[in-house]
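Write out the bound-state structure for magnesium ion.
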Amino acid sequence: MTRSPPAIEPSKVPRHVAVIMDGNGRWAKQRTRPRAFGHRAGVGAARRIVRACHLHGVEVLTLFAFSQENWQRPPTEVSLLMQLFVRTLSREVNSLHKNGVRIRFIGDHGDFPESLTRLMADAEALTAGNTGLTLVVAAGYGGQWDIANAARSLCAEGQAITPESLESRLVLPQLPHPDLLIRTGGEKRLSNFLLWQLAYTELLFVDTLWPDFDDAEFERALEWYGSRQRRFGRVPEGV
Ligand code: IPE
Ligand code: IPE
Ligand code: MG
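---
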């Protein structure tokens, strides 16, 4: 990670970027290759955006790697994805750690292979004290699951449900909500990603398929974000 960061005014860099990495299957199909080929190429794009966020001083990057609904894909694709997670995590964790990245996983991991949950726990423990980029990997995640869990835990303790109490029981309560969401692959939907946390996020949908998403396109996304006027329901400044 030695390249110097490109010139984006630091005050305009989003603190938290969330990404729906979509389009691997179509990318492979365009090349008349199996979907697995696209997923493997997608790992390269994930590696690129981690490095770019590190260079630009983004505090948190959340990558949607596997949704709860993705369990409904053919078993061969699901197991290929699980193997790819295991392989990628074991290959990348040391270099992420060296670069000060703190890794967190969110989602329901109950049905994940034990080899994977062990690697995830080890990666979180190894990198817990790091103070650089926080890399959140959403795997087995669903926004509705997240909200329902939070409500269930409050109810079990007889606590009142308020936006604040619910927020405190969602995954990652101590992190800022995403400022910028990027979805590649052309679909304009959230597919049950961070439903609560995206309430005031700037949403960017691009047609580029995930394996093709490169540094230049990420910089364009940051520039677009820098040009947004975020009002949070207020009137614009100076009015
Ligand atoms: C995203 O790419 C990766 C995962 C959902 C795991 P897809 O596999 O959804 O690719 P498309 O949308 O079929 O092209
Ligand atoms: C969203 O992509 C989930 C991930 C990128 C992990 P999908 O390809 O699963 O979304 P849909 O099915 O098109 O909504
Ligand atoms: Mg898809």
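---
The chain has seven helices and six strands.
Residues 142-174 form one domain.
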